[in-house]
Target: RDD family protein
Amino acid sequence: MFDNLQTVATRKRRFIALFIDWICISAYLILLLGIMQLVYLLVFNETPTFSSGQTQLISTLTSVIPIIILFSLMEGSARASTFGKRIKRLKISYPDHPKTRSIIRNIVKFLPWQLGHMGVIHGMYHNFNWVAMTLLSTSMLLAFLYIMMVLVRRDYRHVADLIAGTMVVKNNSLHP
Model:
């Protein structure tokens, strides 16, 4: 499927693109925090108390799902790249069905983040019992696996790329 390894993105460019995307996600989360604190102050005059389930739902609906949708739209578009990939002149290569494969790739890519959220939130409400620790450990192991795969595989693909059948490649067009 991906025979020409000359077009494969370098590790360095992939990690720099990942860092840029992380900065963009962090900026979104900080903005979200500021907006929600303002809403809580104006509407409730304090930060409301939420149950564990409510906190899980809020976390998923305001952080993980919007990021998965945004990244899936960007990577499933004609440019096939996130902010970081555009800056580093990289893109996702798809054998077919870029929109579907992009959604699959991003759900799998952000799974460790969601599991981490679930573990921390469960732990805060349940004194970091075995469920919380299992979720957190699984999250960290998956993140470690993703990074190690990029470091050791010749084609630099990680779990999300393998499941979605994608590859990060150099974008040699004039307009990344």
Notes: The chain has one domain: 5-170. Residues 5-170 form one domain. The CA atoms of residues 27 and 33 lie 10 Å apart.
